[in-house]
C-alpha cells in the first residue's frame, strides 16, 4: 500500500481533520499538516483505534457521526455532552463560516486570470443581459462549500485593509508563474502574508506553457524558507493553469482543507461587525460600499457606523448583483446608504436605531479628542521608553538593496547578531527601491525600513514621514549594521556631538569655472576632512557655517589633509576671502551605555 495523506484517511474513515490530527498527536506521530502522508503502520493503527472506539461507542468519529445523525435523534444518555447543534456547529453552537481568500503575486503571473477562471466556472451565471457589477469580492460555490474571493488582486489592497487594523483574508494564495518563478513582488506578497500571519497556499500557474518549470519554483521557494510539502515542509503547492483550468479544482480543495483546519467560525446571531472592502460613488445611485460581514447579520434598514459617520442601509445586493434583505458572516454585500464613501479597511459596526448610531458617533468623537489630549500631556512609562524589560524583543526590518548579493550579505551579518533576548525579524528582503507597500507593511508590523545602495522615491519618503515610519538609506554596509545595532540596543536614537578637527588659514582664493571659489589654504592645526562641517571667521566674526564639499591637493581630490600641508578647500559658499580662518569639525556618535 502506498502512503496515504492525512486528510484522505480522515475522509475515508469519516473523521474530521482536526480529530485526526489530535489522534496523531496522541500517538506521537509527527506531521507538518493535514496533507502530510502517513506510513502503512500508522494508517493501520489509526484504523484499529477508530474501529475500537466506534465499537465502544467512543468519540473518535463523533464529529462525523453527529453530522450524519441529527443531534435531536441522539440518545441523551449516550452522549450527554453533545450539543444540539447543526453539523457544522461547534460545542458552543457557533457555526462554521466560509473562508475569505486573497490572491497575491508578481505582476503578470496570472492573478486576474485565476480569479476570472474561478468566477466563470464557480459563480452562477446571471441571466442574459444581466450585468454583474464589480464589488471587490465574489462568492464561489464549490463541492466543498462556499469560498469568498477578494477580487482586487495584489497585496496593496490586502495591506491597505491591514494598515487600518482589519484582517479580512483568512487564506492567501500566492500565484507564481511556472515560467518565471519567484520575482520581487512574489517575495513582497509572501512577506505581507507572513506579517499578517495568514496561511499561504502557493499556486504555480501557467503549467500549460512548454517552458513551465514547476520544479524550479519549488526549489526557489526554499530560498525564502518556504519548504513545499513534497520536500518535507509544510507549504501546500498546487500546480495549475488559469488558462486551461487544470489544477484549479485541486486549489479549491486545498483552500477548503486549510479553512477546515483553521476552524473558521462566526455567529450570525452575534452583534454585527464588518469591514469595508471598497467603495465608489455611482453618478446615479450615490455611494456604493462593499462590506464584508465578519460576524452577525446585516439587514436592510439597519444603521451602520463607520469611523465617525453613520448611514442607514437603503438597499443591499450580493456579489452576484441580486437584491437581498439580509447577509450573514463571510458575505460580501454592496450597500447603498452611506452619505460619504468610506475607505477600504474601515471597520463597520451597527446600531439599533438612528439615535444609537448618533450616540456611538458622538462617543467616538469624544474618545478621539480625549486620546489626542492625553497624547499631548502624557508622561511615558519606563517600559514605553525602554521597551519590555522581560520578554524577547523583536526588531522588525524591511531590507532593500541594489542586488541579491548585497541582500544576502546583509542577511548573513544580521543573522549573527541575534541574541537570546532580541530576535531580528527580516519581514521582507527585496531588490530595488522601497515601495509604498513596504511602508504599509512597516506600519502594520512596526518595522524599520533600511535601504542599502538604493534611494527611496520622494513619494515613498513622504508617506513614510506621514506614517511615522523610519526609512533610512545607507551607502556603506557597516553604517547600516550600526543602525541595526542601535535598534537591537533598544531603539535608542544615536546621540552625536561635535568634535573639533582642525584649523586652516585662507592664503588665496582660486576661481574655478565649475566649482566656484576655492579657498587655497594652509592647515595650521589638526586635519581637514571632506564632508566635515566648516566655520569661517573673518576677524572676530563668524561669516559662514556649512560643509566642506571638496578637498584638493594640487589637482587631485582627496579625503583628508593633515596639519602642515596646503590644500584647496571647496565650501558650498562663494564669498570666502584671503585671511579668513576656517575651522573644521565633525559630528561623532557618542557611544551609549
Ligand atoms: N499560458 C498561460 N497564460 C496565462 C495563464 N494565466 C495567465 N496567463 C496570461 O498571463 C498574462 C498575465 O495574466 P494576468 O491574469 O493579467 O496576470 P496578473 O497577475 O493579474 O497581472 P497584473 O494584474 O498586471 O498584476 C495574460 O496574458 C494571461 O493571458 C496560464 O495559466 N497559462
TrEMBL record:
The lineage of its organism: Bacteria, Thermotogati, Deinococcota, Deinococci, Deinococcales. Signal peptide: none annotated. This is Translation initiation factor IF-2. Residues 96-269 form the Tr-type G domain. CDD domains: IF2_eIF5B, IF2_mtIF2_II, mtIF2_IVc. GO terms for cellular component: cytosol. InterPro entries: EF-G-like_DII, IF2_II, IF2_N, P-loop_NTPase, Small_GTP-bd, T_Tr_GTP-bd_dom, TF_IF2_bacterial-like, TIF_IF2. One of the essential components for the initiation of protein synthesis. Protects formylmethionyl-tRNA from spontaneous hydrolysis and promotes its binding to the 30S ribosomal subunits. Also involved in the hydrolysis of GTP during the formation of the 70S ribosomal complex. It comes from Deinococcus maricopensis (strain DSM 21211 / LMG 22137 / NRRL B-23946 / LB-34). The gene is infB.
